[in-house]
Amino acid sequence: MSDTQPLISCRSLWKLFGHDPVAYLEQKLSGGEVSFDSLQSDGYIPAVRDVSLDIYPGEMLVIMGLSGSGKSTLVRCLSRLIESTSGSITVDGQDLRALDEKGLIDMRRNKMGMVFQNFALLPNRTVLDNVIYPLEMRGQDKHTRRARALEVIKLVGLEGRESYFPRELSGGQQQRVGIARSLAIEPDIWFLDEPFSALDPLIRREMQDEFLRLQALLGKTIVFITHDFDEALRLADRIAIMKDGMVEQVDTPDKIVLQPATPYVARFTEEIERARVVHASFLSEEIVGAPPAGEPLLASSTIHSLARRLVDDTRAVYPLVDDNGQSAGQLNRAVALDVLLGANTASTSPDANTAKDITAASL
Amino acid sequence: MSSNVLSQSGSKPLKGSPLMSNRHVGICILVLGIALALATPLLPAGLQRLPEALVLPFADVINYLFLFIKDDLGFIHVTRGIAGGVESLLDVTANLLYGKRRWPNIGPIPWTTIAVTAGCIGYALGGWRLALLGAGTFVWAALLGQWKWTMETLSVIVVAVPLAVLIGLCLGAAAWRSARVEKILNPMLNIAQSLPHFAYMIPVVVFIGVGPKAGAIVTIIFAVPPMVRMTLLGLRKVPPEVVESGQMCGSTPWQLLRYARIPTARTEILVGVNQVIMQSLAMVVLASFIGMPGLGQKLLQLLQSLKIGRSIEIGITIVLLAIMLDRFSKAWAHRQPEHHERHTAWWYQHRLLLIWIALVAGTFLLSMVLPVAAEIGRRQAFTLSKEFDVIVESLLTFVDPVTLAIRSFLIKDVLIPLRDAYLWLPFSAVIALVAGVAWRIGGRRSAVVCILYVAFIALSGWWDRAMITVYMVSVAVFVSALIGLPLGVWASRSDKRAQRLLVVCDTLQTFPSFIYLIPVIMLFGVNDVAAISAVIVFGTVPMTRYTIEGLRGVAPELLEASDMSGATRWQKLRTVSFPMAVPTIMVGLNQTVMFSLFMVIIAAFIGTQDLGQEMQRALSSTDVGKGLVLGLCVAFMGLLVDHLITRWGSERQRLLGVVS
Questions:
Q1: Mind listing the pLDDT tens digit for each residue in B413-465?
Q2: Going from the N-terminus, what domains does chain A have, and what CATH number goes with each?
Q3: Which tens digits make up the pLDDT trace of A261-274?
Q4: Per-residue pLDDT for B584 more than 80?
Q5: DSSP assignment string, A136-194
Q6: Are B536 and B479 in contact (CB under 8 A)?
Q7: Where does residue A32 fall: left (phi above 0), alpha (psi -120 to 50 degrees), or beta otherwise?
Q8: Distances (CA, A) of A121 to A30, A180, A205, A275, B646
């Protein structure tokens, strides 16, 4: 991925709430290290602290954190719904913070879509008119916008309910309208702010599947916010874990689970059944000498889905192949079994145990 | 009043100077006030009444200012211009509704047409019940031969309401956008909402004159403030996510307001429209004092000549009109959009519109054939006034001895001594008492604000008249609380009772205040007792209503907890329900005071001696300065009470941890 240009890129992004934050932060930053507590004791609320992120085209980045960790503020800085205090944001080569109002509106009309936690539908408009709304703002002619809206409504599976009002729909259906609206203008960048948090667990699961189906179809660049770690693991290409406005770690789910960078991240991953998250490819080793014999395993499968093979097939190493049948290294059975059985030895970071003790003490 | 507030302010001082808390300072000043009051005979004259020399010529200054604005700045041409615009609109509605000979010269629309139109609107808004209410109101007005007056009243409302809504919407949006505008607007709205109706009329008479256009303009001015408030509230309440979603769809700020904010604030804005309509009706009826023809003028004439039967008939028409307008606009505010199933035929989707068109055509044709369907003449009208008079007469002969006894007892043994007591109080003592209470409740700032209010009244030179107003209001509020509180407690015991009484209160609150004078004049004739009774009836409504709402609003867990602690009903009320409900009940008390002030001023025309009476005189001599000074005196009394109660209430809510 690193060979392509990032679509969204932010560097040392800050957002403080309080009196004249820009001047304050400037003065504070020139003095060196800025801690959370020192900001708070000065009467400021630090929502985003020194965040640098790159988001690549077609990637789904999930920003995960507990409530109050600054994830919603971060995404609102990236969409410039709120003005950042300091730092830079580049979207598709343009300096987002330097755009004037017209440029910003233009960018939103053509490149960005957003889905909100509480749906944020206009109560006075039908499903169809809600989906038409962004197209109407753009000034598209009536016929085209109607045709396009119907198309997206069909895509999200709400065909036949075009003339309903939001009030007459269930929560899941309302969020489908929200999704359809955000997709109507065919955005390149798709922000989703806890889109499924307000839904029942069963519906949430169903909507996640629906979302994965849409993403497989559309391949958007996605910034997805959630406070639900399972949801993050299920959906993400990469996860950014936030705490107190700072990004603690940005990595693939495999890495987050097996190599948590900080004690905070380690605590999150503690209860997770690793075998369901870790893929064979992640444990793959270079083939030294002769390639191992026998039937190869698919590198893209999770360790959990290989469980029976790992138990029954007693070879010490298995050859791995990718989805195209090309060789993708080899898998060491012992290492894989460690992951499967939840042992903390093999590739987990050595300081994870001590980290656990620290966090336990701080509790 | 002051004693009432005092007895309930049991809150502990939260912050205070280490030496002396607000509470102690307040009590010290209170003691000073009581000492002054007790030492009255010993006080020098200058402390009893403000020396004449110190009375400031506010009225002259205002008059001078008005003359300057009107003539020297040529503002009169501006107002005449505006009035001309409003008048041409009024001419259109006047032609349509009662056939005044003006463009477009197609009126008058037959009464049957208007009745079926109201019926159709009612049906669309709320089904058969509202349809019946709408059509029934107009049938009643037509059958009783009050058609022309009703239409005169309605023609002004039809013009005034949309204009007031538009102005209110713009001002509200401006205040929402700019904090500075809001800062300027807020105190103006506060004063405007506590100025009595008459205070509005005098400047309008100066600038516009009398008659329907003056009536329309005073109505517009009077009805704008609640619209501003509700617009501001509605726009503030739009969820941030909806705004953000609009932004992410690439809306410009104007598109955001037009397509996202205002539609989402629809309910609040329409509640504002409802308030505009109700205020307009109340004002249009009262505008009869400045020559506005219609139901109000007729009622005024009939009441002055004590024709009770006819007054009752007109009263019923006004009440029906009020209920109809209120229910219609409320139904509109709370209506939710609904979709039609697909492939519904277009005529089915618009069936009501088609039926309406058919009915209008039908009634037009009918009225060509049958003149009665177009207009019911005086001679043809039913009137029940004779029967009403007989009933009232017999009722009065029955209750007269009782009311006479009550009346003479109240006047001789209660009201006159009380009034004398209020008048006997030296102004210095009153200031000290008010300052003491204010300091105790809200600290130094409150004390300064309240002293300024009272000082204005003293300096204006209307002290005695003002004290009479205070006496009438305090008696009325006291009795209102005495009736309203137990009634509210009783009603809140059961869901059904509470619901029913709330509906009754709602309905009573929609009546224009003028209406309340009919029954009391009927029972007590024209005197102080009648005036105070009208105020009491009017003031009891909010008291009851907020008591019910306060008690019903207590969190059920708390009640369950106290049940499980073995509390009896009375203990529960005393220890849980009542303390939790007090902030809400105080809001009711606040409204009761406001309503009472307004009513006392209106009651002036049945012969009181307070500020209202002077205001009537100022109105008849079109003395702007005097009228406004009197109006401000009344407004400041209201604002004083409002300030104290609001301060105390929010402090109390903070203590209870109830977020308002």
A1: 888 899 898 888 888 889 999 999 999 888 889 999 999 999 999 999 899 99
A2: 8-261 (3.40.50.300), 262-363 (3.90.1280.20)
A3: 999 999 888 888 88
A4: yes
A5: HHHT--HHHHHHHHHHHHHHTT-TT-TT--GGGS-HHHHHHHHHHHHHTT--SEEEEES
A6: yes
A7: left
A8: 44, 11, 22, 40, 36
- Reported as a single tens digit per residue, the pLDDT across A146-173 is 999 999 999 998 999 999 999 999 999 9
What's the CA gap between B118 and B137, in Å, rounded? 9
With cut-offs at 50, 70 and 90, classify the pLDDT of residue B558: confident
Cβ neighbours for A340, distance < 8 A, ≥ 6 positions apart: A275, A303, A304, A307, A310
Residues of B in contact with A119 (CB under 8 A): 241
Query: Measured at the alpha carbon of residue B200, what is the angle toward residues B199 and B205, in degrees to the nearest 5?
Result: 105
- B244/A114 touch (CB, cutoff 8 Å), yes or no: yes
With CA atoms as reference, the chain A residue closest to B335 would be A124
Residues B448 and B436: their CA atoms lie apart, in Å, by 11
Q: A interface mutation test: which of B241, B245, B349 has the most A CBs within 10 A?
A: B245
Q: What pLDDT, on a 0 to 100 scale, did the predictor assign at position B19? A: 52
**Token pair for B335:** 């209506």
Task: Identify the band that residue B370 occupies on the pLDDT scale cut at 50, 70 and 90.
Answer: confident
Encode A223-266 in three state secondary structure: EEEECCHHHHHHHCCEEEEEECCEEEEEECHHHHHHCCCCHHHH
**Taking the model in full, what pTM does it have?**
0.84
Residue A73 structure tokens: 């503020």
How do beta strands A221-226 and A86-91 pair? unpaired
The nearest alpha carbon in chain B to A189 belongs to B248
pLDDT of A111 over the 60 cut:
yes
Structure tokens at B642: 């409002």
Residue B209: burial class (beta carbons within 10 Å; 0-12, 13-18, 19+) = middle
Mean of pLDDT over chain B: 87
Q: Which distant-in-sequence residues (6+ apart) come within 8 Å of A213 by Cβ?
A: none
Identify whether the C-beta of residue B517 lies closer than 8 Å to the C-beta of residue B303.
yes
The more confident residue out of A353 and B425 is B425
Report the chain B residue with the minimal C-alpha distance to residue A164.
B339
| Minimum-distance CB partner of A118 among B239, B337, B342 | B239
Distance CA B641, CA B643 (A): 5
Classify B265 in phi/psi space as left (phi over 0), alpha (psi -120 to 50) or beta: alpha
Radius of gyration of chain A (CA): 23
Q: To the nearest whole angstrom, how far is the Cα of A114 from the nearest Cα of chain B?
A: 6
Domains of chain B: 124-336 (1.10.3720.10), 399-424+464-660 (1.10.3720.10)
- Residue A331: CB atoms within 10 A of its CB come to 25
Residues pairing with A114 in the sheet? A191
Lowest mean pLDDT among A11-25, A45-59, B270-284, B376-390: B376-390
Q: Work out the minimum CA distance from A120 to partner chain B, whole angstroms.
A: 4
Pick the closest to residue B316 from B140, B154, B539 (CA basis). Answer: B140
